[in-house]
Amino acid sequence: MRAWTMQLYSIQKQALIQLLESCHLIHFTFDLWSSPNHLSLLGLVGHWINADGKACHGLLGLRRLYGAHTGDNQSQIVLTLLQEYFLVKKVGYFTLDNAANDTALSCLSAKLNEIGVTFDPEESRLRCIGHVINLVVKAFLYGYEVEEDALLEASSSIWRKRGPYGKLRNVITYICWSPQ
Known about the structure:
alpha/beta, Nucleotidyltransferase, domain 5, 2 domains, 6 helices
């Protein structure tokens, strides 16, 4: 990054740290995904109520994850960001999308307990309603616990029956699903 970009980032980060000092609890969402160029990125967003009683949120970090997508690797990034923003003693609830994040929260709990902060990963875990609705609709349309490849194939066979438009839709879907 250029020097002026780093300065601006530092100023914004300090302002956010000062803003979060007065908050009692901060709640979080985080997610891990792979970009089209095969970079694994974890984003952490904080949610809080400000002094005026207004619900606020802000991106605390978008960090590259090296290695396997394990709960331990994810929890290390989350813990590092919590420490950078001085939030380890203000951790509230986490709203996350899938079961793999249960492992990440368990690992985070162990790391927080090591530094003297009590955190119950089961009590502090909320399910993302958008993800739940998505799973319900997929189960309704394609059956319970369908693999992504099987889902793509089932969807493709349905659209293939619709002629050239369906075939075009399948080509576009394949292109969008492929990281290449």
